[in-house]
Amino acid sequence: MAGVALVVTLALGTRALVTDAAAPMVPTTAQLCAGYDALIAELDSDGIFATQAAVRAARELSVMADNYVPPTDDELTEAEGNPPIDQAGDDIRTVLGSVAWETGDLVTATRPVALACGWDWPVTTTPPPADPRPPSS
Known about the structure:
By secondary structure, this protein is mainly α. It has a domain at 26-116. Helices cover 58% and strands 0% of the residues. α2 packs antiparallel against α3 (50-67) and α3 runs antiparallel to α4. It is elongated, with a radius of gyration of 19 Å.
């Protein structure tokens, strides 16, 4: 009888741990910016597996952007013309889902994260479209 109780207790404990581990992590601004920095570093890398590492970093950043909850005193609001952070998650997935994406497409898709991390986006006041374009020849 004690063995059955032990097995049931372990099963419930394991279930609770697995459920907790599967729950989406709510990243802090520092973690989001670290993910952004990691992606940009991978995009700048010339290693043999640089593309695979960049795709992995982009997917991780996409998940973080989806789960990010901005601080209540966040200055970057949609009303000021800045896109919401979770839009970056959608845009990153759109770019990665394209057959012919380029580094510039992925950088453009991460614009909301760059703004949240204090990066001054010099292109325009509105983000360029995140739609992937065919590679230039």
